[in-house]
Amino acid sequence: MATAPDATAPNATTATSSLDLSCVLGGIALPTCVYNASGPKCTTVADLEALARSRSAAVVCKSCTLAPREGNPLPRYYESEQLQATTNSTGLANLGFEFYQDAGPTIHAIAPSKPYIVSVAGMCADDNVEMLTRLWDASTKRDFQAVELNLSCPNIVGKPQVGYDLEATDKLLARVAQLYQDVEQPLGLKLPPYFDPVMAQGMANIITKFDVKFVTCINSVGNGLIVDVDTESTVIKPKGGLGGIGGLAIKPFALSNVRMMRGFLPDTIDVVGCGGIQSGRDAFEHFLVGATAVQVGSQVMMEGPECIGRIQDELAELMKSKGYTSLDQFRGKLKTDNF
Asked: Is residue 153 among the annotated active site residues?
């Protein structure tokens, strides 16, 4: 009698219809594993509606501040085909917290079951505490499914990234923990890239002390400089041309941060991969190093939210070619001694 192929074997034959791209993020069941990153094309009503209509597994809004912000001077965004990178210094341009706290019904009128994640990025610790207090006020019963607290915006003039200050992060999360009592919606953190495993371990130790459900690795690589040789000038105006670098060029740093955080954090805290995802193959790499789900940023800016469905399809085809039927069969199983 012929035996059935081993579903975990790299070359096992499977049917496309049997592929499972679902995942559970912070206790929230997602039908697929790819969704948008906060930042590109998630600011306005039209942006959020387009994401709701797309195949994005969830909708994340623009990182919001208490008051609306126009952001930094234009031009503040640039795409470099040569470097396969983007640079931006948007400066947290957004419509303000009140708009995003109430955006859930707009999204769910189009996609009733699609989770809405509110991204919060206060200009100071007190602002973050005030926004979270209002979001988690049980009496308001606002329509959102998770919070992503952004500790890593590199584009505010004169403001450091909280995620690089371990002491400040510890103090902020201690204040947040006092608010996070009997709250149903999971809390996540968006982290900056760490280039030293010792610092990544230090941040992981702090995060583990609190009831954080997921971390997103990484935000853009801060304060990069792209120069236009023809004009002998910077390509963006703010901060003397310094901006957050995104796109395919930052994928190695995103992968290393996902892998480090997956190793440093307990299994109860999920890791979301973000950075350099343009294709299903890029997404596969993030899962291979331990991501629970992935976010797409720069590619959404360049291609629109339609790219999310394309990336899902490419990921499914790659899984099929390798004989995988679910993400769990290869998630976190990067080989390091295959030489």
From this structure: yes
